[in-house]
Recover the amino acids of this structure.
């Protein structure tokens, strides 16, 4: 089965596959730039030695959120194309939890859109991680998810373009 | 009428289950449902200001009415990435 450009997966992330999904299409010479981002489990957080992160997602809503982000990218950077996979399950330090590839004819749009996508994933994707560290575990709680929050969307855009 | 409630992350830990079925009166809103749950699980109550809701796997609002067999998901602050 062909891998979808937007996905939640329990399998190891394949960044090369995301590059192929984002770039080219009918015209292999269309995209002069591909910018990728790989989010990995860091072995230290808040002074604690992290032994694993356990990710979970509300999958149908996460895919909807990814499609929302894809549409936002298309609106802000016409011509940029996105592939985005987020992993779920228990991950050890050094393993990739999220991968983004943005392809576009020129580099500026790809760099900006890639940064925008990771900021929006952190804001609106219904995905959670529980940190397992020496001596305990804790749910990490970040942003209140609200795709209609225009201020959050603008903040992500500003980070991408500053 | 009956609705299915889904919990994620710490809310699931508090509820002790990933989902449950609740009876709510006709015309009940998401807010009404939340208040019943917060009464059953007092540790959820402090989440009211930071929780998001999804109805049938679409982001929703606390003011919206729920319907028979809806799936209502309560989402604590997210931490993907």
């Amino acid at each position: 089965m062909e891998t979808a450009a937007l996905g939640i997966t329990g399998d190891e992330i394949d960044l090369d596959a995301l590059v192929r999904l984002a770039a080219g299409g009918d015209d292999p010479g269309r995209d002069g730039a591909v910018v990728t981002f790989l989010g990995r489990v860091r072995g230290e957080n808040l002074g604690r030695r992290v032994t694993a992160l356990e990710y979970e997602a509300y999958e149908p809503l996460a895919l909807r959120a990814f499609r929302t982000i894809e549409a936002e990218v298309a609106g802000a950077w016409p011509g940029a194309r996105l592939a985005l996979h987020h992993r779920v399950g228990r991950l050890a330090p050094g393993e990739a939890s999220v991968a983004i590839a943005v392809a576009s004819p020129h580099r500026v749009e790809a760099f900006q859109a890639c940064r925008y996508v990771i900021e929006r994933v952190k804001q609106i994707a219904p995905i959670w991680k529980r940190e397992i560290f020496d001596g305990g575990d804790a749910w990490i709680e970040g942003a209140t998810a609200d795709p209609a929050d225009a201020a959050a969307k603008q903040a992500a855009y500003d980070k991408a373009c500053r | 009428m009956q609705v299915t409630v889904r919990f994620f992350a710490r809310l699931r830990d508090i509820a002790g289950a990933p989902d449950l079925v609740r009876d709510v009166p006709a015309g009940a809103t998401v807010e009404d449902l939340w208040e019943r749950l917060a009464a059953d699980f007092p540790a959820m109550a402090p989440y009211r200001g930071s929780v998001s809701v999804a109805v049938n796997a679409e982001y929703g609002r606390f003011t919206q009415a729920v319907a028979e067999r809806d799936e209502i998901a309560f989402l604590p602050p997210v931490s993907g990435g």
Q: What stands out?
A: Residues 2-75 of chain B form a domain with the Ubiquitin-like (UB roll) fold (CATH 3.10.20.30).
